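Case study.
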Amino acid sequence: MNKRVQYELIWLIAVIAILALSALANYNYTVSSSKEIAQPYNGDPAGVVINVTGYQWGWQFQYPNGTITTDKLVLMANVTYTLIVTSKDVIHDLYIPQFGVQVYAVYDHTNEVSFTPLVPGTYIMECVEYCGEYHYEMRGEVVVL
Amino acid sequence: MIFSFELAIFGSTISVLIIMFLLLYFYAQDYRKYLLEVNHEEILDRGQENAVLSNMKRELSFAAFFMDDSKSIGIRYIITSLLFFFIAGLAGIGMRISLWNPNPTFLTPIQYNVLLTEHGTLMLYGWATGSILGLGYYLLPSMLKIKKDKLGHLNSAMFWFYFIGGVLLIFSRSTASWYFYYPLTDQLTEAGGGTYSFAALAGVLLILTAANVASIVFLKMIFLDRDKSIRLSKLPLFAWSIVSTALLILSSAPVSMVADVMLIYDLINPIFFTGSNGTALGYAILFWFWGHPIVYVAVIPAFGLIYELLPKYANTKVYSYKSGVVGLLLLMILSGTVWGHHLFNSGLGTIWDLIFSTTSFLVAIPSAITVFNWIATLWTGKIRLTVPMLFILNAIVDFVIGGVTGVMQADVGINELIHGTYWVTAHFHFILLGMTTGMAFAAIYALFPTLSGGRRYNVAMAKAHFYLTALGTYVMTVPWALGGFQGMPRRVAGYFGIFQSYQDAAAIGGIILGIGQLVFLINLVYSSTKPISVSNENILESEVVYGE
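After joint prediction, the assembly is written out as follows.
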């Protein structure tokens, strides 16, 4: 075999090996924590259910006891929550950076995502899908008690 | 709309640029008539007119704007795309300055959103697409030794489609961002998608029509019109990159055009993306079917240019011709299958997430083949650090950084953390600034003697342009990446105070970048006034020696 082709094969195999490992890790995560990835609501939520509605320009959270908060999400540590997310108008995207939670809010379509906050404190929450004039003010805080 | 100082500044700057351009056209008409030595009323026979015009020197003269031959169409595209680049860059710098403080002070949110949309649409459709079509029209006929292109009139008309499309994008004052996502675009208010958002959609449609026609013409040039002495196995790699790009445009742009027409239809009779038989995500899916391939459309020709220019400045031959071709074509095939990674968190479901993340990992393979091919070429060569070579080396480094930060996003778990943040903005600015824009600059510098009819660019200014551009890119994008990883959202007119240090650093980077482009503009004007001093030979016409 030609020396040049040998070199090419070496780097090709190295790249494929690295990518295969990454893809495997990705497969492992996606399958084992599918509840923590946004997916269409299937009627079988885990833990405490919070209904989330995005609108231009704010977030509304409805807790199981009927309480409603705006731009502020209050949670208890070590409790599993399921957010059921929809939108009143355009496409929004609820994002809590520190929890790695991200889910689209789409009109006429419901998504769900589950997570368990562990450390009490105050965190930030944002809309990361561009949604018009006051998109940047569509943000708030997440308080974990 | 309430009158405001900032709007007046930006509006007038943009209007002045357009008026300048129209004035130049006016003088160009006059200049052309002077050259033809005819009165305004006299009508020339078309063939006679072209014969006179083709005897003229091909310099940066605006007389070229009325000719039908492929070279002059190429020059038109290159200059117009540069114009759009400067306008979009101005919008970008306006946004950076406005983001200096956590709360918008310099621009109101609506003005910010107008600039956001303008920057995105003009950079992608005006600059990236336009410069690629221009280089294709300019380089392909001479590389492939084509005697005559019979579709000259069509190409000339398509240039005007492209130009009018760009102007519509500027003046529509759309605030829908370059995604034009469904419910937002059809909210025809200042606070929603912009009162005249449909004009921007019409602009996109015109530009995509021009891109589609150009793709067909390129494929015709390469496969039907090329000189019989050039065998398919000896086709220049730039031509292969254009084959790849053209097929990508033809296979995915029509999908986006259909979606844009559906959006316009939904303004009057909403049936496609709402109600019982449609969903707002339907538009997002149709859009990303083209929205992802367009970024490959923007980089693949830049790969082709590197393959052409690198051996010339490294005094060697391309390490492997075959793997170059395989890399370019594989990139085209795989990039058509990855668009779903833009919608991981929209509720595609675990299975689709897995499919799209796996194909996104796969697309790194042809990119890696290509990059290693360049590195091997550099390894075997003797490098001359000319200005185009500096841009090439920077493009390779930036592409590696942009590629690695990009492939990380293919991971579903990491994607949940960084989707919609400045991390993504940093990733694609590394590639679009370093690779697409950098290679367009490299090509313009390399072709400058040809484009300007035998003049030389000022090397000191060109080097200053390079160093400012490279430095500005890093100073702007590295803070974006760092802030993005902590959750700094993109496309916002204001932000949480905790991200201010990242935004301020990026603003400084943006200003450095802007000064660099100003040096470039001054250099172009200054050098065009110099006397003719070198031969106007096109260095990209001479043959490149390829390896195996």
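Observations recorded in class. Chain A has two domains: 3-32, 35-144. Chain A is about 20% helix and 40% strand. We will return to this complex in the next lecture.
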